[in-house]
Amino acid sequence: MCMEKYKLIKYLYVLTSDETDYYLEQAFLSIASLKMRMPYAFVSLLIDDVTEKTLTDKRRNILDIVNELKSIEIDSKFNKKERSRWLKTSMRHHIEGDFLYIDCDTVICDILDDVVKLDVDLGAVLDSHVLLSNHIWEKGIRDNDKLLKFNDELTTDKFFNSGVIFCKDVQLCHNFFNEWHKLWIRSASITILDQPTFYRANLYCNNIIKEINGIWNCQIYAGGIMFLANAKIIHYFSSNKSNTAYIPADMLILQSIRELGTIDSTIKNILTSPKTSFQPNITLIFDLKTLLLINSVEFLIIKKIYECKYIKYIYKIMKFIFVKLKRILT
């Protein structure tokens, strides 16, 4: 791709962070993985005024790998996570030009130049790579929507993940972000989540969001295995503790970035083959029924009992009962 053409697209990250979290280190890792594959990529970093004040000493090194920094003053009534959503739902109004928005908890696996060939104004990947009617959390998604007190039903089966968004600098997209930001502000006192209002904004803007290939947002812990081989971006959902199976999401990696203020040769080696960077022996594939069980309250309670040495005898009793039940049921 010629040097002029790449300037048509910006790679946008939104960051709200301080010394008590590892969001900056996640962003550093993702941007570094992007620059490893595309040194010429134009990276925009959108932050709030509170985060900007924390960019001192080693934390300031992230500015060495970005091309554009935009700091926005946000009402102090919003906490850190709320400021992140505030920025994300309004980012179209702060950044000029077409952009590919990328969540911080990602790793770039391939050259992203082809994004300019996407024949959409606003594009995203389905959440968990499935339609809402097949989604593992369909009930929770619908319950969240009711919690926000929207009066009409969910009328489209496409529930998009907001972790990677391709957005052109056109009026339709500005209108969408106006709607999304307005809906999020309305719902902020009820839920911090941005995806319920992402869905609603799409609905109210006549389904402007178009589905793009899952390789642009491979959600490896939510149905993304089929896209992993050709993935351009791996989204590892770092808020889920199970994601330590994916090495770049390991806390030791993020701690190393914090201590060094950069990525060392060990991390660079990991990033050279991000599609195979999984911990041995603990990386497994589950079917949907097993995944539902693992995420159930019942399983969580059993796990807690098993892990607590003071009441482990209860687990032994439960195990005895389960063995008896197995004989009856099989």
SSE topology sketch:
Blueprint: H1 3-6, E1 9-15, H2 23-37, E2 43-48, H3 49-53, E3 68-72, H4 80-90, E4 98-102, E5 106-108, E6 122-126, H5 138-147, E7 160-167, H6 171-187, H7 195-204, E8 210-211, E9 218-219, H8 225-228, E10 233-235, H9 251-260, H10 265-272, H11 288-294, H12 297-307, H13 312-329
Parallel strand pairs: 1-2, 1-4, 2-3, 6-8, 9-10
Antiparallel strand pairs: 4-7, 5-10, 6-7
Helix pairs in contact: 2-9, 4-6, 6-7
Shape: globular
Terminal Cα span: 61 Å
Residues in helix, %: 25-40%
User: Count the helices. How many?
Assistant: 13
| Secondary structure: number of strands | 10
Largest sheet: 7 strands, mixed
Average pLDDT level: 91
| Percent of sequence in beta strands | 5-15%
Q: What structural class do helix, strand and pairing data support?
A: alpha/beta
The domain count comes to 2
Helix and strand element order? HEHEHEHEEEHEHHEEHEHHHHH
Which ranges are low-confidence, i.e. pLDDT below 50, for 5 or more consecutive residues? none
By CATH reckoning, the class of the largest domain would read: Alpha Beta
The name of the CATH superfamily of the largest domain reads Spore Coat Polysaccharide Biosynthesis Protein SpsA, Chain A
What's the Cα radius of gyration? 21 Å
**Which second-level CATH architecture of the largest domain applies?**
Alpha-Beta Complex
The largest beta-sheet arranges its strands as: 3-2-1-4-7-6-8
